[in-house]
Design goal:
By secondary structure, the protein is of the alpha+beta class. Helices cover 42% and strands 12% of the residues. A hairpin with a 2-residue loop joins strand 8 and strand 9. The longest helix is centred in the N-terminal third of the chain and has 20 residues. The structure holds iron/sulfur cluster (2 copies).
Length: 384
């Protein structure tokens, strides 16, 4: 095999990755991610990652050192794939109370599609250079400060909402990476920034963007409705609105995200989950949940988490048609988390029927935390 020059090799890698369907492909060196590692450690110290037990200082140390992730690593191939649904993506509304689903979750689970393509890219690298190239793939599911790599490669820049903003597709992108021991010519970071804009900071309903570029995950609706396995803090529930899985608000207000093209993907397909009818979720069985959300990122919230979220959204939407179903969830759910949030929603909806249901449940409930939720809900009724 004739040795390929460094620029030729990079050009072929980038061309092949584009052929695989990625919208953006750039290269970064595998130097330590020192600055971002320090910022991530500071977030851990401040408690902003509390609730994600796996996000420890030790993890951050590994995540900022590519040599730990792949000994001998020289380069990252960073890619982005647009997921902005077309304008007409919305389902027909049913007239029943519905919760909003974050845009990325309107597609089937992206990890599989991204990984399949990145693995094809991995294999191609070895063919280009005629030796077994060492590689490791990252798609938002292992230790790596991924956004820091995207910034270094010039895929985009850090927005004050902590998303990576790409100049062509805004922040509506899935990001992925191949770390390799191949030396590829790095691209430059972009010379762009948010400038004076701060629109996303006051737009965040829960005040989760506590300073430019700093997110308190404990307050972020994306975390609260997806990763969080416990209760949604009571003071934040009214601020969650109708969002049943994830949150796009700080992306929707971002001027960089206006007038960017919709995804041209055909392979991703669509799940149709731009919103979810909430009342049926309260009684969905584990089997139904597993089948319905089998190939959707929504399964990450798990059935109990989605039911908790449905209670919060129903409490906020304020449609009293939800009262009987919330009453059944309060009386019959085997999950204290669901019973507690159903009580909260009934307290929020109010009315005599809700009060009767809450009082009846208080007479039977044995779980201390659920009892406390019911008492708080009844207290809320007394103050109305
Ligand atoms: Fe705030 Fe929603 Fe953005 Fe989280 S995703 S920072 S809750 S606007
Ligand atoms: Fe940056 Fe403004 Fe977008 Fe926030 S809304 S990420 S400040 S450009």
């Amino acid at each position: 095999m004739v040795a390929m020059s460094a620029p030729d090799l990079k050009e072929r890698v980038v061309r092949y990755a584009r052929e695989l369907g990625f919208d953006l492909v750039r290269i970064a060196s595998a130097e330590p991610l020192t600055r971002d590692g320090e910022a991530a450690r500071e977030r851990v110290h401040r408690g902003y990652m509390d609730g994600m037990a796996w996000y420890t200082e030790e993890r951050v140390r590994r995540a900022s050192d590519p040599q730990e992730l792949l000994p001998g690593a020289r380069s990252f191939i960073a890619v982005a794939l647009s997921y902005l649904p077309p304008e007409d993506d919305g389902d027909e509304t049913s007239g029943e109370p519905e919760g909003t689903v974050a845009r990325y979750a309107r597609w089937p689970d992206y990890h599989g599609v991204m990984k399949e393509r990145l693995r094809a890219l991995e294999q191609q690298l070895s063919k280009y250079v005629g030796r077994a190239v060492r590689t490791r793939v990252f798609v938002d599911d292992s230790a790596l400060l991924e956004r820091a790599v995207a910034e270094r490669a010039g895929i985009g820049w850090f927005g004050k909402n902590t998303n990576i903003l790409t100049p062509t597709h805004g922040s509506w992108v899935f990001l992925g990476y191949v770390l390799t021991d191949l030396a590829l010519e790095p691209d430059e970071p972009l010379k762009k920034s948010c400038g004076e804009c701060t629109l996303c900071i006051p737009a965040c309903p829960t005040g989760a963007i506590v300073a430019p570029y700093v997110l308190d995950a404990r307050r972020c609706i994306s975390y609260l409705t997806i990763e969080n396995r416990g209760p949604v803090p009571r003071d934040l529930r009214p601020l969650v609105g109708d969002m049943v899985f994830g949150c796009d608000i700080c992306q929707e207000v971002c001027p960089v995200n206006i007038d960017v093209p919709a995804a041209v993907e055909t392979e991703l397909g669509r799940t149709g989950f731009s919103s979810l009818e909430l009342i049926p979720l309260l009684s969905i069985s584990q089997e139904e949940f597993s089948v319905r959300f089998r190939s959707s990122p929504i399964k990450r919230a798990k059935r109990v988490g989605l039911q908790r979220n449905a209670c919060v959204a129903l409490g906020n939407i304020g449609d009293r048609r939800a009262v009987p179903a919330l009453g059944r969830a309060l009386g019959e759910s085997e999950e204290p988390l669901v019973r507690g949030h159903a009580a909260w929603a009934l307290g929020r909806l109010g009315g005599s029927e809700a009060t009767v249901l809450l009082e009846g449940a208080l007479g039977r409930e044995e779980d201390a935390e659920v009892r406390e939720e019911i008492e708080a809900a009844l207290g809320a009724r007394e103050r109305v």
